[in-house]
Write a structure and sequence with these properties.
This is Decarboxylase. The chain is α/β, with parallel strands linked by helices and about 900 residues long. About 45% of the residues lie in helices and about 10% in strands. The protein is built from 35 helices and 23 strands. The strands form 7 sheets. The protein has a 7-stranded mixed β-sheet, sandwiched between helices. A 5-stranded parallel β-sheet has the order 2-1-3-4-5, with helices on both faces. It has a 3-stranded antiparallel β-sheet with strand order 16-18-19.
C-alpha cells in the first residue's frame, strides 16, 4: 500500500476524530510549512497536505479552489506562498471567520474583504450575523464539473436569505457516508441519482460499517438506500431527492418518507434552494422563545401577582438594583405569570409550549415530550405516579436515584429491588445484569403474579457511565411479558441522541429500532423458529441462558425516557424532558395530566421553558458536532492522564476493562484507546455487549495518590477552580460535555501534573516515614474498602401477600410508619444494642431512606430489614453527608410492637398506623 493510501486509510476511518483532530492536522500543516520555508525538508509538508486533501473533500471550507491553490503552490515549490495560504486557512477555521467573511474564501485576498465572484457578494453583506451551514450534494456528475456545479449553487444566494450555506459535492455512496460522519456542519443532503458506490480512498473500516447496512455491490447503492443510511446515523438532517424517473411513483412509496421533498431533476434549483432554507428554518424556530422575546418588547401593564415582572420594583430600588444590573433588563421584561399573549400554559399547553414540545419530540425520536421545570427528579416521579397504582409491582434498580423510590411511595407500588454488579474496589455499583432482571420476571411468573408486574425501572447511563444494551433488555423482557412498561432514567445521557454511535443505546433509539423490527416480516419467522427450538415448556435455566426473541405480534411497546436537559444540553438548571413512545398512552393520558398537576408548579419559570426550547434548536442544528467534540475531549483527557509518566504514577482513568467485567463485554472490547481499536469494533461492542462505558464519563482513581474522593474534590475546587460532582471512596468523576474546550483539557492536565509533582516531592523529601504513612493511606483507601451491602428484604409486616420467590414490599406502608413517632425508636450506630439485636433479634427495621453521599444509593429503604453487612458498611463510611441519618440520634427504626400492629395489609391498602401522639 502506498504512503498516500495509508494516510487516507488512517484518516478516513476516524469517524469521531472531529473538529479537534481536524484542527490539529491544519496546525501540523502550518508547522511543516514553517520548516520548509526556513529551508528544511518539505517531505513532511507534502505528507501533511496529502492527509488533509482527503478529509477536506468532505468539507465546504476551504473548498475546492483553496485546496487547489495549496496544491499548486506546493507543486510550484513556493514555500512562502504555501505557508501564507495554510496560515490564513487555519486562522479562518480556528476563528470560524469563514462563516461570515467572503474574503476568507479567496486565494488572492488582499485583506480588503471584497468578495470574489466565486462566493457571491451576499455572503458577508448582511448587517445581522447569518448562521452558516453546509449542504451535501451527492451527484453522478464527473468531478471535473464540480467547480461549475458549486458555482451554480452559490448563485442562488440572496440578501434576504436568513441563512447562508456552502455546497459539499461527492460522487459515491461511501463518500456521502464519510462526509455525513466527518462534517458536523452538514445540515441538509441533496441526493441525485446516478452516483457511484465505492470511494476511491482505501478504507477497510468504512467497508465494514457500510456492509452492516447491506451495501455490498453497485446494485445496493440506490438513492433510497443512501437516504436510509444517512437518516439512521444523522436523523436530524433534511434529505432531498432529485430524480429523473417517475417521481410520482417514488413519492407514493412509504419508504421515501425519509425525504423532506422529492424533485424532478430537470426543474430549476431555486425551489430546492428555498426548500433547504425552509427546512433549516423549521429547526431554527423556537416557538416559545420567539414569542417570549416578542412579549418582552411589548409595553405591558401588569396587574397580577408578580411584582418583579417588567423590572420596575428592581430598577427603581436603591436596595436591590444591583440584582437588575447583574441579570440585565431582558430577564425581567420576560417575566410574567400570564399564559396568554403567546406564552401558553405548561399545565395545559395548546400554543407555543405545545409546538415547542412537538419539536422536541421530533428531535428526540419520541411520540411526545413533556417539558418539566423542576428537574428530572420530578420527571421520574411523574412517570411512576402516572403509570403505577397501589399494589402494582415494579422491578427497580436498588441503586437508582432517590426520586424513583419516592415515586414508588407516592404511587403505593411495590418494588422488587434488583442489584447491580458490584465494583467493591471503587465503592460503586455498575448496572443490573439482564439475567438478574429476567430471573425477577420468571420468579413473578412462577408465583402467579406476573400480571401485577407493570414496569421495569432502570438508570441508563449510570452516574459512573454504565450503559445498558437497551434494545436487548427490552426485547428479552417483552419475550416474557409483552406489555411491560419501561422507564429509563437517562438524566445524564440526553446528549447521546445526537451521536450515531450512542443513539442505539438510548431508550428512544432502541424503541424505534424495535418498532422497525416489529414490522419486518422476518421478525415473526425469527420468533417462531426460536419457539420451535425451545420447545413447549423450556425451563427457567434455558430461558435465562437464551437470548430471547419476543413475539412481534404480541408486543405492546411502552417506553418512557427522562432526561436532565440541563445536564448535557444548553438548558437552565432544573430543565428536564420526559419522552414518551407508548402505544397505550391514550389509556394513561389522563393519569399523566393528574401527575403533571400534582408535581408541576402553576408558576413555572419562563426563562427555563425558553431554555428547553432553545436547547432543542441547538442540538438539532449542531448537536452532532458538539457531542463529537465532547467525546473527543474525553479521549484527549484519558490519553493525557494515562500516558503522562508523572500523572499516571499516582492517578489513572479507568478504562472499560476496569469498569465493565469481562462477562458483560461479549465482543472482547477492552477500551476506546486500546491498541488496534477502531470504530468498527467499537460499533460491534455497542451492538453486542451487555454493558458499555459512556466515553464522556471518566472515573479518575485518586486513592493511589493518597486522597479520598471527597478530599480530592475539595482540593480541585478550592485550590484550582475545577468543579466536579460525583466522588467515591477513592475516585472522582470527570465528565466532558458540549461546553468543554481543549483549553479545559490543558488546565486539568496541568493541575493533575502539579498535584502529582507535589505528592512525588513529598515522598522523596519526607524519607522512610513519609513513604510508610503514604503507603498506609493508600492501602486504607484502595485495599481496606468496605463490602457493598445488597438489599436484604422487606420485613414481613410490609410484605402484604408477596410470593415465595419475589421480594417485593409495600414501601409506602414502611415510609408512613415513620409518621408514628411513638412507634419508632433511635439507636446510635456504635451502640452495642445494634450488635445484640443483629444476633438475637428482634429485627432492625428501617423507618426511613438512608442514602450516603458518596456513593449516593440508598443502603436502607423504609420497611427494610437491616443486616450486618449494612451496619458494617455504615461504620466504615467516612463521608459527612448521609441523607436520612442523624448521627446524634442514630438509626430511625420501627419498633417491634408497631410492626405487630401494622400486620399484613392487602396490596394497595393504606397502612393501619397508630395515630401520632
Amino acid at each position: 500500500m502506498s504512503k498516500d493510501a495509508k494516510a487516507a486509510e488512517k484518516r478516513i476511518d476516524q469517524f469521531i476524530s472531529g473538529p479537534g483532530g481536524r484542527a490539529d492536522d491544519w496546525r501540523d500543516l502550518v508547522e511543516a510549512a514553517k520548516v520548509w520555508a526556513r529551508g528544511g525538508d518539505r517531505a513532511k509538508y507534502d505528507a501533511a497536505l496529502a492527509d488533509l486533501s482527503v478529509i477536506e473533500e468532505f468539507h465546504g471550507y476551504p473548498g475546492l479552489q483553496l485546496m487547489a491553490a495549496l496544491r499548486e503552490a506546493a507543486t510550484a515549490g513556493d514555500a512562502a506562498e504555501s505557508l501564507g495560504l495554510a496560515t490564513r486557512i487555519t486562522q479562518a477555521l480556528m476563528t470560524r471567520s469563514f462563516r461570515q467573511h467572503a474574503g476568507d474564501w479567496d486565494p488572492k485576498d488582499d485583506g480588503s474583504g471584497n468578495a470574489p465572484e466565486l462566493v457571491s457578494s451576499t455572503f458577508g453583506s448582511h448587517a445581522a450575523r447569518r448562521p452558516y451551514f453546509e449542504t451535501l450534494v451527492v451527484t453522478g456528475v464527473s468531478s471535473d464539473k464540480w467547480p461549475a456545479l458549486a458555482a451554480e449553487w452559490r448563485k442562488l444566494r440572496r440578501p434576504v436569505d436568513s441563512f447562508v450555506y456552502e455546497p459539499v459535492i461527492v460522487g459515491t455512496l461511501e463518500d456521502a457516508f464519510c462526509a455525513t460522519m466527518l462534517n458536523p456542519n452538514i445540515a441538509a443532503v441533496v441526493i441525485n441519482e446516478g452516483f457511484g458506490l465505492r470511494s476511491r480512498h482505501d478504507a477497510p473500516v468504512l467497508r465494514t460499517m457500510t456492509a452492516t447496512a447491506g451495501v455490498n455491490d453497485e446494485s445496493d447503492g440506490s438513492a433510497l438506500r443512501l437516504a436510509h443510511i444517512i437518516k439512521r446515523v444523522r436523523p436530524e438532517l433534511d434529505l432531498y431527492l432529485m430524480s429523473n424517473r417517475d417521481v410520482e411513483e417514488m413519492a407514493g412509496n412509504p419508504e421515501a418518507n425519509v425525504f423532506r421533498r422529492i424533485f424532478y431533476s430537470i426543474e430549476e434549483l431555486l425551489e430546492l434552494h428555498l426548500s433547504i432554507l425552509e427546512g433549516i428554518q423549521d429547526r431554527f424556530d423556537t416557538p416559545f422563545f420567539d414569542n417570549l422575546k416578542k412579549y418582552a418588547e411589548r409595553p405591558i401593564g401588569t396587574f397580577h401577582a408578580l411584582p418583579i415582572a417588567r423590572g420596575k420594583s428592581v430598577f427603581r430600588s436603591d436596595w436591590i438594583r444591583d440584582m437588575g444590573e447583574f441579570y440585565g433588563l431582558n430577564l425581567f421584561l420576560a417575566e410574567s405569570s400570564a399564559t396568554t399573549g403567546g406564552l401558553d400554559s405548561l399545565l395545559e399547553p395548546t400554543g407555543t409550549i405545545k409546538k415547542a414540545q412537538d419539536k422536541a419530540a421530533r428531535a428526540l425520536g419520541a411520540d411526545r415530550v413533556f417539558f418539566v421545570t423542576n428537574g428530572t427528579s420530578t420527571s421520574n416521579k411523574m412517570a411512576v405516579q402516572a403509570l403505577l397504582g397501589p399494589g402494582d409491582i415494579a422491578i427497580v434498580d436498588r441503586n437508582c436515584h432517590k426520586s424513583h423510590h419516592y415515586g414508588m411511595v407516592l404511587a403505593g407500588a411495590q418494588p422488587i429491588y434488583v442489584e447491580a454488579f458490584p465494583m467493591t474496589e471503587y465503592s460503586m455499583y455498575g448496572a443490573v445484569p439482564l439475567q438478574t432482571i429476567k430471573q425477577a420476571l420468571l420468579n413473578a411468573r412462577a408465583d402467579g403474579r406476573l400480571d401485577r408486574v407493570k414496569m421495569l425501572d432502570l438508570t441508563n447511563c449510570t452516574f459512573d457511565g454504565h450503559i445498558y444494551n437497551t434494545r436487548r433488555v427490552m426485547e428479552e423482557c417483552l419475550a416474557i411479558k409483552p406489555d411491560l412498561i419501561f422507564l429509563w432514567d437517562e438524566a445524564w445521557f440526553g446528549f447521546a441522541r445526537f451521536s450515531p454511535f450512542l443513539r442505539r443505546r438510548t431508550a428512544m433509539g432502541a424503541a424505534n429500532e424495535i418498532e422497525t423490527w416489529m414490522h419486518d416480516p422476518k421478525s415473526v419467522a425469527a420468533y417462531e423458529k426460536q419457539q420451535a427450538d425451545l420447545g413447549k415448556t423450556p425451563s427457567d435455566e434455558v430461558l435465562l441462558k437464551t437470548r430471547l426473541i419476543p413475539d412481534p405480534r404480541q408486543i405492546r411497546l411502552r417506553v418512557y425516557q427522562t432526561n436532565s436537559t440541563h445536564k448535557s444540553m444548553s438548558a437552565i438548571r432544573q430543565g428536564s424532558m420526559l419522552s414518551v413512545k407508548d402505544v397505550e398512552f391514550h389509556t394513561v393520558e389522563q393519569q399523566f395530566k393528574e401527575a403533571l398537576f400534582t408535581h408541576a408548579s402553576t408558576s413555572p419559570n419562563q426563562q427555563l421553558i425558553a431554555s428547553l426550547d432553545v436547547s432543542r434548536r441547538q442540538m438539532e442544528l449542531e448537536g452532532y458536532g458538539l457531542v463529537a467534540n465532547a467525546i473527543e475531549i474525553a479521549f484527549a483527557i484519558r490519553k493525557a492522564v494515562n500516558s503522562n509518566p508523572l500523572i499516571s504514577k499516582y492517578f489513572r482513568i479507568l478504562g472499560a476493562d476496569a469498569m465493565v467485567p469481562a462477562q458483560y463485554r461479549q465482543s472482547g472490547f477492552t477500551d476506546y484507546l486500546a491498541a488496534g481499536t477502531n470504530w468498527a469494533n467499537i460499533v460491534k461492542s455497542l451492538d453486542d455487549d451487555e454493558f458499555c462505558l459512556d466515553p464522556t464519563r471518566m472515573t479518575l482513581v485518586c486513592g493511589t495518590a493518597g486522597y479520598d474522593g471527597t478530599q480530592f474534590k475539595g482540593i480541585l475546587a478550592n485550590e484550582y477552580n475545577i468543579q466536579i460532582n460525583k466522588t467515591s471512596r477513592n475516585s472522582v468523576l470527570f465528565q466532558s460535555n458540549i461546553n468543554n474546550t481543549r483549553s479545559d483539557v490543558a488546565h486539568l492536565v496541568r493541575v493533575l501534573a502539579e498535584i502529582a509533582g507535589e505528592v512525588d516531592r513529598g515522598l522523596v523529601q519526607g524519607g522512610a516515614n513519609a513513604k510508610k504513612t503514604f503507603d498506609a493511606r493508600v492501602k486504607s483507601l484502595m485495599t481496606d474498602v468496605p463490602d457493598l451491602p445488597n438489599f436484604s428484604h422487606f420485613h414481613d409486616s410490609f410484605r402484604g401477600d408477596a410470593g415465595t420467590k419475589t421480594n417485593e414490599g409495600d414501601i409506602r406502608s414502611g415510609f408512613y410508619s415513620a409518621y408514628d413517632a411513638a412507634g419508632c425508636e433511635y439507636i446510635r450506630l456504635g451502640d452495642p444494642e445494634i450488635d445484640r439485636r443483629l444476633k438475637a433479634g428482634p429485627d432492625l427495621v428501617s423507618a426511613s431512606f438512608v442514602i450516603p453521599y458518596p456513593p449516593g444509593f440508598p443502603i436502607m429503604v423504609p420497611g427494610q430489614v437491616i443486616t450486618q453487612e449494612t451496619i458494617d458498611f455504615m461504620r466504615k463510611l467516612d463521608v459527612k453527608e448521609i441523607h436520612g441519618y442523624d448521627a446524634k440520634e442514630g438509626l430511625k427504626l420501627v419498633r417491634a410492637e408497631a410492626l405487630a400492629k401494622i400486620g399484613r395489609p392487602k396490596p394497595g391498602a393504606a397502612p393501619k398506623l397508630k395515630a401520632a401522639s
